[in-house]
Amino acid sequence: MSDVLISPDELARRIGGGDPVRILDVRWRLDRPDGRPEYLDGHIPGAVYVDLDNELAEHGAPADGRHPLPSLERLQTAARRWGLDDGDAVVVYDDLSSSARSTSGRATNSTRSARGDGSTLPI
Bias regions of kind Low complexity — which residues (predicted)? Predict the structure, then answer.
């Protein structure tokens, strides 16, 4: 696989092998933005629910758009709540295709860009 994508089998192997993996459930839909009920109905074991509106976005002026990127400080605070530690692999998933993938992509790109070199997120 690529350095960004992971197969379900590889994820299971890493979890079973005791590798430090943090799993983020970032379900979000325009018609139902709070994905927590779906998370509570079922999620990958060990996954933490991530709220797009409150953890992966700032609340700015309307001119800033629907979900402006969070500040580094806001992202670090959220990452601590998610249980991320330096050196952890981070796996992000959602449950929709097409444009909704922007939610998992946002989480992936936010954590990768905050890391600087792609390896650690300063916590």
Answer: 97-113
